[in-house]
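Hello, quick one for you while I still have it in my head. Could you read through the record and tell me how the tokens relate to the sequence? No rush at all, and the record is pasted right below.
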Amino acid sequence: MKFAELTTLRVGGEAREVLSPATADELVVAAREAWESGEQWLALGGGSNLLVADDGFDGTVIRVLTRGIEEVTGSRATLRVAAGEPWDAVVAFAVEHGLSGIEALSGIPGSAGAAPVQNIGAYGQELSHVLEAIDFLDAGTGERMRLAASDLDLGYRSSALKDSPERRGRRGIVLSLDLRLEVSELSAPIAYDQLATALGAAGGDRVPLAAVRAAVLTLRASKGMLLDPADPDSVSAGSFFTNPIVSENFARGLPDAAPRWILDPDAPESPVKLSAAWLIERAGITRGFSLPGSGAAVSSKHTLALVNRGGATANAIAELARYIHLRVLSEFGIRLQAEPQLVGVSL
């Protein structure tokens, strides 16, 4: 099976072997057998945050297809979610059952099991705000264990489970996750200006859960960040680049108009988060931009997304990403980091 059939970017070559366990027990058996073989392996959820080379993957792909959401109620509620459950279905369940804390994470594609790997976040909420623990199968030992959120080193689009330029992530498979939510028909306090404006609310207000979910889905659709067969801009991996985090001293050298967020106002020298979209646009990359003859393009709705306009290859996506990276590096001295997992592809 080709990764073009398994990923939202619709690119990528053949996987040598694909396993599709549908229960937790089947997933544990499949993973242990793959690991014991000593061959390459790759866990795959919704395929929404993945770019695989045109040559494919000479190893075993373990598709995580487990399903299930179990609710334990009290003054707060714990949702135990199977790793293969589509993330947006988890949010929809929480909103329908009056559980507050993840409503602003509506519309994020992919599976629940990938959520802690990325520490997904949007519109002022992050998984780290509500994650209690995960059930984890460790590739090094084959053991099944419970890891508290505090063990996962959750940061901006990162965790101890994710590979990064600085370190190798902890290898294994997330089997399920526990989310600690508030029993309330009202949202968590609104913490993102654009969302507050869309709701006609002020920052810090709490509004009905359904209203937040509807507003977020509308915002995501307007940016091509909501999977929609009728929207060619949704044939993407979502945001392709993370927002850079730089020192406060470095940020002072940027144009005054550059958006920035002080991450630790109490620190003498705080890390500063920048807008990757602003940097890309000011480096001369416009919405809809593509290289001559390429099927890959920047989304016509949002400069953070790279899309397959039809017939694109993984190499074409990577070539466009490299071009954007070099433009931003040349203009601002900032190295953009790719958000999707790259397999057989380098930027």
Observations:
- The chain has three domains: 3-63, 69-222, 232-343.
- The mean pLDDT is 95.
- Residues 314-332 form the longest helix (19 residues).
